[in-house]
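#struct-pred

JT: dropping the chains for the assembly here, can someone run the whole complex?
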Amino acid sequence: QKEVEQDPGPLSVPEGAIVSLNCTYSNSAFQYFMWYRQYSRKGPELLMYTYSSGNKEDGRFTAQVDKSSKYISLFIRDSQPSDSATYLCAMSASAGGTSYGKLTFGQGTILTVHP
Amino acid sequence: KAGVTQTPRYLIKTRGQQVTLSCSPISGHRSVSWYQQTPGQGLQFLFEYFSETQRNKGNFPGRFSGRQFSNSRSEMNVSTLELGDSALYLCASNTRGADTQYFGPGTRLTVL
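RK: done, full complex below.
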């Protein structure tokens, strides 16, 4: 079983829809949670970073972390065709030992927002 | 501030050859991590360097190696290439080696 599970989709929504992307994880040592967006043939781009349980909002994006359930979410409001990309969740434990510099990623969810 | 740069962007090699990929981190970032991305396995951690020292290594064979220079630039080397090494190789940098990492565009390696 993978440490981080993410539904690969694909997910197709109309422009303006609210998109919900989710990941579950099994390693309770994970303390830092990130969402990356990756366009085709590009490197991942950091979208959101959270440390504690709760919500964090940045423009149209809201990241939610529930450590008790080992579940994280990314919500995209008023989705646009330019949001069409692969969304990757990533997690890391506190720095040290086998955690130095290591992010553990979900498989990524392919999102298409059609006009 | 300039982002993470990787060279070359594309490479085609044949089985048995070796390859060296280069990564220049964001100015001031001393930690560089390398990842392999494939459609089947997703993004997998290769290793991390900080101040010229490898601090962490993922589950890859010894054919995969790396190093970091005093200016924080990093290289990774893959020897005796196999078809399964075809992938997008990404490097990422940050200030301390944990949490947020900033990725380069990647090097697309094709092994024939």
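JT: nice. The longest strand of chain A covers residues 30-38. The two ends of chain A are 37 Å apart (CA to CA).
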